[in-house]
């Protein structure tokens, strides 16, 4: 098969093939001319390269000499064509005067904490997860939320891991010895709230439940402390709607006062609830 027929069979243009072939031949000739045959020719070529070096040759020379061009250029104040021009001195001074907001800077710092006055525990908040990254992230979030809600928090305290293992046969009968092992490690953290008001603690738990992170389970133990007067109300019959002896009496009285106010009634006259009430 001739060359022309072979090119047609491969669907290659004859003109393109000849241009590529000639280019390859010229490159081989140039390479043979540059390849030194003796030591003297190699030294002469090296001297010529040092006098008229190209980019790749310069980089190789700097590397062998232990010189870092970019670092040296910065030390001597040499700018690259790709560098942006410096800003106006007044503009640069105004930018330097600007400070990052404290809430943004606080992200890269340890969470702030409030000191407990009495150290009485009111809530043990436990987090569980199989992923240490999710667990540490949400524990840090819980401590930060406690600070901004005025709750003294301790932790997160690492708790012992829960390791569970199972052995499952891959088959039955004579293949019972072929078994497969599985392991599940549960990591835990504890955040303890001290000297916190029960209502604020419940609001804190509701906030964490609303913004719960995926893959993290939560469990909370809450303690409420009553005054000694609560013992006198033991065994007293409480009627429906009566809240005289409850801790929330002051708040419920304020809510009742707002609901019975004339301004509230006038504002709610034309309000239609989107919720349909059914008997």
Automatic annotation (TrEMBL):
Domain (Small ribosomal subunit protein uS10): residue spans on this chain: 124-221
GO CC terms in record: ribonucleoprotein complex; ribosome
GO molecular function: structural constituent of ribosome
GO biological process: translation
SUPFAM superfamilies, A to Z: Ribosomal protein S10
Keyword field: Ribonucleoprotein, Ribosomal protein
Pfam families in the cross-refs: Ribosomal_S10
Family matches, as InterPro entries: Ribosomal_uS10, Ribosomal_uS10_dom, Ribosomal_uS10_dom_sf
Family: Belongs to the universal ribosomal protein uS10 family.
PANTHER family documented for this protein: 30S RIBOSOMAL PROTEIN S10 FAMILY MEMBER (PTHR11700)
Name recorded for this polypeptide: Small ribosomal subunit protein uS10m
Lineage start: Eukaryota, Fungi, Dikarya, Ascomycota, Pezizomycotina
């Amino acid at each position: 098969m001739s060359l022309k027929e072979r090119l047609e069979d491969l669907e290659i243009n004859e003109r393109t093939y000849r241009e590529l072939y000639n280019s390859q031949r010229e490159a081989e000739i140039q390479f043979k001319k540059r390849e030194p045959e003796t030591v003297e020719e190699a030294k002469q070529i090296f001297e010529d390269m040092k006098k008229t070096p190209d980019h790749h040759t310069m980089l190789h020379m700097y590397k062998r000499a232990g010189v870092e061009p970019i670092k040296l250029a910065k030390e001597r104040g040499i700018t690259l064509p790709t560098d942006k021009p410096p800003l106006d001195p007044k503009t640069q001074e105004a930018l330097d005067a600007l400070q990052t907001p404290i809430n943004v800077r606080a992200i890269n710092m340890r969470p702030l904490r409030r000191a407990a006055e009495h150290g009485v525990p009111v809530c043990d908040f436990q987090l569980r997860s199989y992923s240490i990254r999710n667990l540490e992230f949400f524990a840090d979030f819980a401590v930060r939320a406690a600070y901004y809600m005025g709750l003294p928090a301790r932790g997160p305290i690492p708790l012992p891991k829960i390791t569970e293992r199972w052995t499952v046969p891959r088959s039955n009968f004579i293949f019972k010895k072929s078994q497969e092992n599985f392991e599940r490690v549960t990591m835990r953290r504890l955040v303890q709230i001290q000297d916190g008001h029960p209502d604020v603690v419940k609001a804190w738990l509701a906030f964490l439940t609303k913004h719960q992170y995926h893959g993290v389970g939560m469990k909370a133990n809450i303690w409420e402390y009553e005054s000694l007067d609560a013992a006198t109300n033991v065994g007293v019959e409480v009627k429906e709607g009566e809240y005289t002896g409850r801790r929330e009496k002051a708040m419920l009285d304020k809510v009742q006062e707002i609901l019975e106010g004339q301004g509230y009634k006038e504002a709610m006259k034309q309000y239609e609830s989107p919720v349909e009430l059914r008997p």
